[in-house]
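R.M. (postdoc): so does anyone remember the format we settled on? I'll just put the structure tokens first.
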């Protein structure tokens, strides 16, 4: 087999994907692997409805992690509804 530019590129690409694949296949911690203190903390957070979401900020394509409780999310929903109702009311009066 002769080594040509295309063959070398193909072999380099295969090696790169192999290395990247191996790096991404790491294991993550599950609740079964948590210490008793961490498991108790996680249980308290779950009871509060704690949840983390990845949100994209306007003007940026990089998502940020945003963690909230169920109570915070409900308050934000109510504030958003009140804002929309206020804007609709103002538009009807104009």
């Amino acid at each position: 087999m002769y080594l040509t530019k295309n063959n070398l590129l193909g072999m380099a690409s295969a090696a790169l994907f192999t290395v990247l694949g191996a790096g991404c296949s790491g294991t993550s911690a599950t609740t079964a692997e948590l210490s008793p203190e961490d498991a108790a903390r996680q249980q308290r957070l779950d009871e509060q409805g704690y949840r983390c979401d990845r949100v994209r900020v306007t003007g940026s394509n990089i998502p940020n992690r945003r963690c909230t409780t169920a109570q915070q999310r409900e308050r934000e929903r109510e504030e958003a509804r009140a804002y929309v109702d206020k804007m609709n009311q103002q538009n009807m009066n104009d």
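R.M.: ...and that's the designed sequence above, right after the tokens. Also worth knowing: The helical segments are 5-24, 36-47, 70-93. Residues 82 and 88 are 10 Å apart (CA to CA).
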